[in-house]
Amino acid sequence: MYRLLIVDDEPVITNGLVQLFEENPEFELDVLKAYSAKEALAIAKKMKLDILVSDIRMPQKSGLQLVDELMYYWPMCRIIFLTGYSEFEYVHEALRKNVDNYILKTEGIDPIFTAVQQACQRLDEENRRRVQEDKLKQHAKIARPLLKNERMERILDGEPIRALLTDTRYEGLDFRICPDLPSLFVMGCIDESAHSASREMISSIQGIFMNDLPSSFSCEQAVYERTLIWLLQPDAELLGRFQEGESEGTISWSGVTGYMKGILESIQNECDELLGVQVSFGISGNLKEAWGTIREQYATLRMILKQKQALGQSMVITDISKVGEPIGNTGEQARHREGDTKSLVIAQIQKYIQDHLAGDVSLTAIAQEVHFNPSYLSRYYKQMTGQNLLEYIQAKRLEAAIDYMRNTDLKLQEIAARVGFDSHSYFTTFFKRKMGMSPQEYRS
User: Fold this and answer.
1) For the modification 4-aspartylphosphate, which residues carry it (predicted)?
2) How confident is the model over 398-405, as a mean pLDDT?
């Protein structure tokens, strides 16, 4: 499943396009929206984007400027520009940026559907090409140097990293991580209920990880206790993009972690689609002043991922900051085994939706709540319930709106906001499509 972001400073256009894509059975997309380039970039920092459909002329920051920023995070994202103007300078600049399509808004929805379909096809072709490249690289790959793996094992055992970097046993071995700068590790656990962690499988997962890891990260990798480990260090430019407030040097580490989750989502999807293997990931905290805790963080994350696998949960993404948060009710979990735990996860998803109808009930937000990969969550929910997650959300919004109209004197605009519609006209269109009459007619 690809993720489509629609950006336009006119809400009626943005909401209309979102609705049209969600109702078109030819597309299986996770559709997001933003009303400005600033909103769009905030989304890009949190999750992987595959296709961008954007107005080219917007206040404060144009679509062209948005693309310059967005491509830093997701260089494989396909770009489609919309405009109400046929102006040569915009066309020329768009072509220079290797944009997939430039469409006049007056041309209607069909050219936009066609452009997105073509973008999906290009993404499919690119994925196939990368798989072929991976296969060629694997044939030529030299076996992993044993000494590098040994040194990483000793770091994970908690030995002082600076002493290991000056140990003459490892003289001449490069190490791309500076212990005095912000760093983290990512651990990956293969779901061994379906696949054994063979050497070939591990090598393939490592290849996908390194291909998808942006160049803004330095990396050292190892296999430790049958678990895949990547020690990572973001560069100064990336850290600068997650600077918190005006104070120089203060980094929003939760922002870095959120970006990493978006990268891991892509890696999980590729492992599932290309290798037929499901991998769960755990993310450590910032190791800069905490190298002494690396063994403890590793043990904690590994225990959590193994517990979730034992309960039948696959393609999990969690981080050390979430360790203290119970996944559902811990007392209930003690009384449930795998079959009942699946029901518990569904109940948790539905409760989150019910509690957040006025807020963020996107696939990504729900997935973070239950520590699932967003694409896998969509499939998982349908497998467990027989219903699309979007259909369930829409049903709950409609149910809540009807309840407000019957039992309160709230204005329709306020009801729309309470059930998750930031546009009253969008709410009216949604309600009429579901009920065959407008909210005003229903209430009267």
Assistant:
1) 55
2) 93
